[in-house]
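Please decode residue identities from the backbone states below.
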């Protein structure tokens, strides 16, 4: 297996993890839930702080769930979360989606949420997920397509442009949700065994705006993304501060609305 360098744009700073821990199986993997059975074994690739992983474990009480991430940073928090929920059928470890440390035909389900957009080789990732899922098993993937925000501003548009330029500079994949079926076919899945769909998120209440916009405000002020943007001269500290203030203005605006469109796919081996 050839080595593939990671190209993850974000780090695991508190402002980044804040936008991850809200995610659960219902709001981020609903397209998969009808196919889960209590005895299933599940691999959650790119699990981060484990909020989706532990929710999946809760839904397969006689099964086993493994969550993996390419670095160890968020995994202690994931273990603590599982412990606080009283779950004993889930564990976490470090692994690279490009070269998963599991035997062929190991899991009933392999799940990846908002992971492929950040990595170097999505087709190789699909091949690895296909390899470790059992015959008849499911590979389930969700990825972003686009976001829509109201009201917008010059600084918020600059924030979106900055994220796009950083992903392009690091080889990441924008609008990854549009390409899932193409990557899956290249990885060996038959078109007849693919189920394509779309999902969405919406942040419109005061609490929802605070959750997302507040995290983006902090990310613009202090995160790996902000430090990289300054170091690579993609944005100045002054520009980042303007972006942070724009997010705060959006949070406080009762007309503030933010929506995300996602592509989703279920692939049967």
């Amino acid at each position: 297996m050839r080595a593939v360098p990671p190209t993850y744009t974000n780090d695991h700073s508190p402002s980044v993890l804040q936008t991850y821990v809200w995610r659960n199986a219902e709001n981020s993997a609903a397209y998969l839930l009808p196919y889960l059975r209590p005895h299933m074994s599940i691999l959650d690739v790119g699990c981060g702080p484990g909020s989706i992983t532990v929710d999946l474990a809760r839904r397969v009480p006689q099964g086993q769930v493994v969550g993996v991430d390419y670095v160890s940073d968020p995994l202690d928090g994931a273990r603590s979360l599982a412990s606080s929920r009283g779950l004993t059928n889930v564990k976490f470890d470090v692994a690279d989606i490009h070269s998963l440390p599991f035997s062929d035909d190991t899991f009933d389900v392999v799940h990846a949420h908002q992971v492929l957009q950040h990595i170097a080789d999505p087709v190789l990732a699909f091949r690895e997920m296909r390899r470790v899922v059992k015959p008849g098993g499911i590979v389930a993937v969700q990825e972003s397509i686009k976001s829509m925000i109201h009201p917008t501003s010059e600084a918020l548009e600059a924030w979106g442009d900055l994220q796009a330029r950083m992903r392009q500079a690091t080889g990441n994949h924008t609008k990854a949700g549009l390409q899932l079926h193409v990557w899956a076919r290249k990885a060996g899945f038959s078109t007849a065994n693919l189920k394509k769909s779309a999902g969405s998120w919406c942040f419109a209440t005061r609490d929802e705006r605070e959750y997302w916009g507040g995290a983006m405000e902090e990310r613009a002020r202090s995160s790996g993304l902000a430090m990289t943007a300054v170091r690579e001269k993609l944005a100045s500290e002054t520009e980042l501060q303007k972006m942070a203030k724009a997010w705060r203005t959006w949070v406080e605006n009762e007309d503030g609305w933010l929506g995300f469109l996602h592509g989703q796919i279920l692939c049967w081996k």
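Observation: The beta strands are 41-45, 64-69, 90-94, 107-113, 133-150, 194-203, 257-268.
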